[in-house]
């Protein structure tokens, strides 16, 4: 089966969307023809869109931006919809992997509704997917097998999703929090934000400033 794996993160190098997509790829790569695309970094040419619609399955992995889809990826979906309507004859199925910065995976609920509506409008089967919370923590465990990390539940959900992808049947939407105390996650997150702010020449008070 031909599977298009689309990463919607705008990060160069390691991204959390890429980490989740990478683990799913490991589970699928033996038996299927996987093609990788970055919708967060560059716009797709018509050749790429045609490659995607000639496949069987799309897996779209992206970060939550303001409870929604990052603009580059939304633009890609709008263009993909047009190409599908003009040229597609067989049914595609799309699975989504959405990760967010906040701890609770349920924060991704509106983004899933948008993806579901896009599928209905484009004539694509909505395959459901995984809404992962505490996405920025994934990077800390990128060298640990997922099933031995606080993301063991993500590993199990990806395994079940793999079974559904292989038979082209929808997976339910699964919202996941990590197995990690929320208060510790918060301490780590605040430290991380402060370090990032300082690297960008900002002070703590700049982060708290209200516009
Ligand atoms: C512009 C912007 C908006 C964001 N909006 C949200 C949001 O609404 N809710 C949330 O939980 N995280 C939000 N985040 C955090 C990202 O979803 C989170 O850091 C994610 O893990 C990044 O994934 P990536 O490494 O694949 O790009 C936002 C990040 C950015 C840069």
Could you write a compact summary of the structure shown?
This protein is α/β, with parallel strands linked by helices and 211 residues long.
- Low-confidence parts, pLDDT < 50 over ≥5 residues? none
The CATH topology of the largest domain is: Rossmann fold
SSE series: EHEHEHEHEHEHH
Attached small molecules: flavin mononucleotide
Strand order of the largest sheet: 2-1-3-4-5-6
So what's the overall shape? globular
Domains, number: 2
Distance linking N and C termini: 49 Å
The portion of residues forming beta strands comes to 15-25%
What's the number of helices?
Answer: 7
Instruction: Give the overall average pLDDT.
Output: 95
Main beta sheet: 6 strands, parallel
Give the total of beta strands.
6
**Architecture per CATH nomenclature, i.e. the level-2 architecture of the largest domain:** 3-Layer(aba) Sandwich
Helix content: 40-55%
Counting helices, strands and paired strands, the structural category is alpha/beta
Task: Report the CATH superfamily of the largest domain.
Answer: Flavodoxin domain
Tell me the name of the CATH class of the largest domain. Answer: Alpha Beta
User: Over all CA atoms, what is the radius of gyration?
Assistant: 17 Å
Describe this structure in words.
The structure is a single chain. 43% of the residues lie in helices and 18% in strands. It has seven helices and six strands. The protein has a six-stranded parallel sheet, with helices on both faces. Strand 4 (93-99), helix 4 and strand 5 (125-132) form a beta-alpha-beta unit. Helix 2 crosses helix 3 (71-87). The mean pLDDT is 95. Residues 9, 11, 15-17, 63-67, 99-102, 107, 135-136 line the site of flavin mononucleotide. Flavin mononucleotide (FMN) binds at residues 9, 11, 15-17, 63-67, 99-102, 107, 135-136.
């Amino acid at each position: 089966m031909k599977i298009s794996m689309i990463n919607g993160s705008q990060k160069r190098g390691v991204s959390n969307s890429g980490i989740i997509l990478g683990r799913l790829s490991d589970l699928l790569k033996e038996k299927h023809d996987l093609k990788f695309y970055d919708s967060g970094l560059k716009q797709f040419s018509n050749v790429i869109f045609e490659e995607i619609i000639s496949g069987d399955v799309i897996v779209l992995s992206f970060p939550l931006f303001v409870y929604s889809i990052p603009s580059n990826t939304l633009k890609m979906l709008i263009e993909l919809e047009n190409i599908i309507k003009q040229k597609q004859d067989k049914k595609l199925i799309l699975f989504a992997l959405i990760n967010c910065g906040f701890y609770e995976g349920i924060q991704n609920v509106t983004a899933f509704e948008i993806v579901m509506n896009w599928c209905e409008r484009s004539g694509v089967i909505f395959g459901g997917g995984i809404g992962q919370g505490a996405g920025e923590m994934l990077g800390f465990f990128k060298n640990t097998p997922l099933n031995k990390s606080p993301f063991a539940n993500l590993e199990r959900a990806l395994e079940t999703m793999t079974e559904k992808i292989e038979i082209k049947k929808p997976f339910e939407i699964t919202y996941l929090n990590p197995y990690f105390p929320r208060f510790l996650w918060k301490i780590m997150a605040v430290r991380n934000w402060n370090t990032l702010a300082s690297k960008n020449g900002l002070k703590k008070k700049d982060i708290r400033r209200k516009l």
